[in-house]
Amino acid sequence: MLGRLNHVAIAVPDLAAGTAVYRNMLGAKVSDPQPEPTHGVTVVFVELPNTKIELLEPLGENSPIAAFLAKNPSGGIHHVCYEVEDIIAARDRLKGEGARVLGDGEPKIGAHGKPVLFLHPKDFCGTLVELEQA
After folding, report:
1. d(CA 104, CA 83)
2. Cα(86)–Cα(88) distance, rounded to whole angstroms?
3. Can 130 be counted among the known catalytic residues?
4. Contact in structure between 109 and 68 (CB atoms under 8 Å)
5. What CATH number is attached to the domain comprising 88?
6. How many C-beta neighbours within 10 Å does residue 125 have?
7. Which has fewest Cβ within 10 Å: 61, 65, 94, 123?
């Protein structure tokens, strides 16, 4: 069911500073900031030869990332994103196995313009998992 690793997301308290670390210190190609109001974040993508790193900064007071950063003020790994061929089939199979889909259970359009779902970390070894339709 799982495809390739699409990205690892890192929550950061300061997107400009996080971007500078990857661009200047590590010499990576980094996208322009992209606000994602539906998800309550602003993101940049660090492009690597085999995957991406997504840097997330809270967008607005009700951002779900704000609570994460309150517990982890320096930032940290927030989630991993795996590609799936058919997000509805993946969701239904996982729910049949007892996995909990966060939110209303319906895919939303993610930062790449593709449908995404999030799965409860307690069902996946303490890791928040995002599925993205490839």
Report:
1. 20
2. 6
3. yes
4. no
5. 3.10.180.10
6. 7
7. 61
- Amino acid letter at 87? I
- pTM of the entire predicted model: 0.93
What's the angle, vertex CA 28, arms to CA 64 and CA 129, rounded to 5?
A: 35
Tokens at 53, concatenated: 């790193």
Lookup result for tokens 């609570």: 67
CA 17 – CA 96 distance, rounded (Å): 42
CA–CA separation, 100 and 98 (whole Å): 6
Task: State how many domains the chain has.
Answer: 1
Q: Tell me, what amino acid is at 132?
A: E
Low-confidence ranges of the chain (pLDDT < 50): none
Domain that holds residue 42: 2-133
Q: Are 34 and 55 in contact (CB under 8 A)?
A: no
Phi, psi of 25, deg, nearest 5: -75, -40
Name the active-site residue from 54, 57, 83, 130. 130
Please list, in sequence order, all residues whose beta carbon lies within 8 angstroms of the beta carbon of residue 28, skipping any fewer than 6 positions away.
Answer: 22, 46, 47, 48, 53
pLDDT at 61: 82
Place of tokens 């994602």: 36
